[in-house]
UniProtKB/TrEMBL annotation:
PANTHER family: BIOFILM ARCHITECTURE MAINTENANCE PROTEIN MBAA, DIGUANYLATE CYCLASE DGCP. SUPFAM superfamilies: EAL domain-like, Nucleotide cyclase, PYP-like sensor domain (PAS domain). This is Diguanylate cyclase/phosphodiesterase with PAS/PAC sensor(S). CDD domains: EAL, GGDEF, PAS. Residues 224-276 form the PAC domain. Pfam families: EAL, GGDEF, PAS_3. It comes from Pseudonocardia thermophila. Residues 446-704 form the EAL domain. NCBIfam families: GGDEF, sensory_box. Residues 305-437 form the GGDEF domain.
Length: 706
């Protein structure tokens, strides 16, 4: 069934329309400088003009009612500002500009979300069209003065759509042919050949799609959306959410239809499973999910005092389907259901999804009973199943929940078992995990932090503190490590231990790491201007995700150029794990940076698997010995093993002509022993806690005078 929605009266997306804050203004200025740096040639006024264009792009995305057409004038002005003057290939200028702006969407939006991203993509497409039109009117060798006059101008299309992450299609009005960007072609499994868009629509949905298409052409609607079934050339069918809008020429005449396509097959499958669950599962003949809901309703409304619930997910079932085929997988599911039914006995076993089962237990005496049932289910599944003449092993992740019916609800019990099941999956499967309220509260806090993390950069909630790096023999301030803190609006100041891992898992570490590097380099540049060449360097941590990013090295070079910080005044701290994620790429990036003069330090040294030959290949300047070894040197009678390890690490580093920093230096005893062992630099509370950047010059002078 096709689900069609006319968006004429739909509530509009609202972005903040207040004056742009100073922090956002500064970010746009820095982005304009980076934009100017990636364009060929040099023009004295170009950066300020580009900053003006960035402000207009940000305003076009934010302004209500939204229309992408504002981007066309911006594109024309981009050409008019002379950025392509004397250049042989304006297409490259446009493609380079659009690539940069798409990569920096969080700077333009102040946040990252689907609606804002779609708006920005539409505005940038119009920027490309306006640029192309201006280029044509200037007398370049293009087939028409209007890139939409005879169809889609090839190089405008390539720059505006070819690199987009969303699945975008353009439908011509005369022949109805569909031109797709790489993401859309990959979704359909087609090459670049133009094909009528009707070839991809399921026959049962075609009439509605054509009716909707006609509404766009007639002007009755400017934007529509639909949930439809689409068909690939191999005849496989998938559900898609399609948003279609009319793109018009400057005279208002229709030019072509732009479509955004999102694969929603999994979402529709979940809906279908819910509908199907109203009756008995046809394959296994087990009760469906609706029966489980009725059972729980009766249990929680006077039928039972306590309830136990096991959620059973078969591990890696999609791989088993690929291996066995659909028929073999069906036979396996029937065998699994039969074996579980024997174990469940009088307890209710239901099939809740393709590879998920529920076992419901009425009036268990205590929480041990459902746990023991889960263990028996795992034991039953551990014996291989014979599918034809082939033994097939099956494991499962089981979440167990138990509660008195008077103190909770059916929904809460179900959620508890599902959460416990997800914990079992995250631990590798093949096990049961019982729900734990304290662990759940911790997970909820982590989720709340993750939700706030995505917008915290745009809200200016992060802070940097700088901890001294001090020479062990002269006590001179050699450098300062930039440590990020989160000034959370509800929880106050949060240390990096609570949010860095979340940032790495969510991908937010890339924009956060860029912000840290920009702020730290700007601060170190102020130290350098005040203290001269003797100024301390700034040390910045780099995560494995950043180091693996293809744009990271360009970010570092651009930030150094923008802030004016000499490369020798920047030290980047990496870990062995960061290098080992993609050793070839990491070595190439670090070598290139090292050749510019940037210092590289290997952090947490001694905790990994470094070998002497591996260290010789790394372009590092300093090793930072992990604080767990330094801690053993604080007692009057030091740990002899720790002392021997520290001495060996220092001797090895010096043999490689590398400096050594000791972390966690907290007592004068540690200072004396590390100095005796030849350690070069110390860091820890004995030398100073992290403080504001303004403190560094005075601390530098104080140490020089003592």
């Amino acid at each position: 069934m096709t689900h069609i929605h006319d968006m004429t009266d739909a509530p509009s997306f609202r972005m903040p329309q207040s004056p742009m804050p100073r922090v956002a203004t500064e970010r746009l200025a820095r982005l304009a400088a980076r934009w100017d740096a990636v364009l060929p040639g040099e023009h004295s006024a170009r950066a300020s003009r580009l900053e003006s264009l960035l402000r207009r792009i940000a305003a076009a995305v934010r302004t209500e009612p939204f229309t992408s057409a504002r981007g066309r004038a911006i594109g024309a002005d981009l050409f008019a500002y002379g950025v392509v003057e004397g250049m042989e290939d304006p297409e490259d200028v446009l493609a380079t500009s659009l690539t940069l702006l798409r990569a920096e969407e969080w700077v333009l939006l102040g946040t990252v979300d689907r609606t804002g991203s779609s708006r920005l993509a539409a505005v940038l497409a119009e920027v490309a069209a306006g640029f192309a039109r201006a280029y044509g009117e200037a007398g370049a060798d293009t087939p028409s003065t209007d890139p939409l006059a005879d169809g889609i101008d090839e190089w405008c299309y390539r720059a505006g759509f070819e690199q987009a992450a969303h699945c975008i299609g353009l439908v011509s009005l005369d022949e109805g042919t569909l031109v797709g960007n790489p993401a859309l072609r990959k979704l359909f499994g087609i090459n670049g050949t133009d094909v009528p868009f009707t070839d991809f629509v399921h026959p049962d949905d075609l009439a509605e799609v054509l009716r909707l298409h006609q509404r766009l052409i007639s002007g009755e609607s400017e934007v529509v959306r639909a949930d439809v079934r689409l068909v690939r050339p191999d005849l496989s069918v998938f559900w898609a959410h399609v948003i279609a809008s009319m793109i018009r020429r400057e005279d208002g005449a229709p030019a072509y239809v732009q479509t955004l396509v999102e694969d929603i097959t999994e979402r529709q499958s979940r809906v279908a499973r819910l509908v199907h669950a109203a009756g008995r599962d046809q394959l296994t003949q087990l009760p469906g999910e609706a029966q489980a809901e009725k059972w729980l309703h009766r249990a929680f409304h006077g039928g039972s005092r306590t309830v136990g619930l096991c959620v059973v997910d078969l591990d890696g079932f999609s791989t088993l389907v690929d291996t066995l085929g659909s028929a073999g997988a069906d036979r396996l599911l029937m065998a699994v259901a039969g074996r579980m039914q024997l174990v469940a006995g009088q307890h209710l076993l239901t099939r809740a999804g393709a590879d998920q089962f529920l076992v419901l237990m009425a009036d268990p005496e205590n929480r041990c009973e459902p746990v023991q049932l889960a263990d028996r289910l795992l034991d039953a599944l551990s014996v291989p199943f014979m599918i034809g003449d082939r033994p097939v092993g099956v494991t499962a992740s089981i979440g167990v929940a138990y509660s008195a019916t008077a103190s909770t609800t059916a929904a809460e019990l179900t959620r508890a078992a599902e959460v416990a099941c997800s914990w079992a999956r995250s631990m590798g499967g093949g096990r049961r995990v019982e729900f734990d309220h304290r662990r759940d509260a911790g997970e909820a806090k982590r989720f709340a932090l993750l939700s706030g993390l995505r917008g915290a950069i745009g809200r200016g909630e992060f802070r940097l503190a700088y901890q001294p790096l001090v020479s062990m023999d002269s006590r001179v301030l050699r450098g300062a490590e930039a440590l990020v803190r989160w000034q959370h609006p509800d929880e106050g100041l949060i240390g990096p231990g609570r949010f860095i891992e979340l940032a790495e898992q969510s991908g937010a570490i890339v924009p956060l790491g860029r912000w840290v590097l920009e702020e730290a380099c700007a601060q170190a540049a102020r130290w350098w201007h005040e203290l001269g060449d003797d100024a301390p360097y700034v040390s910045v941590n780099v995560s494995p995700v950043q180091l693996a990013s293809p744009d990271w090295i360009d970010d570092v070079i651009d930030i150094l150029a923008t802030t004016g910080l000499p490369p020798a005044k920047l030290q980047l701290e990496i870990t062995e794990q960061a290098v080992l994620v993609d050793e070839a790429t990491a070595l190439a990036s670090l070598t290139a940076l090292s050749e510019t003069g940037v210092r590289v330090a290997l952090d947490d040294f001694g905790t990994g698997y470094s070998s002497f030959s591996w260290l010789r290949r790394l372009p590092v300047h300093m090793l930072k010995i992990d604080g767990s070894f330094i801690k053993g040197l604080r007692e009057p009678s030091p740990d002899r093993v720790d002392r021997s390890i520290v001495k060996a690490l220092i001797d090895m580093a010096h043999a490689l002509e590398l400096e050594v920093t000791a972390e966690w230096v907290e007592t004068p005893v540690q200072v004396r022993r590390l100095t005796e062992l030849g350690c070069d630099v110390g860091q820890g509370r004995w030398f100073g806690d992290p403080g504001p950047g303004q403190w560094v010059p005075s601390e530098f002078r104080r140490r020089l005078s003592t």
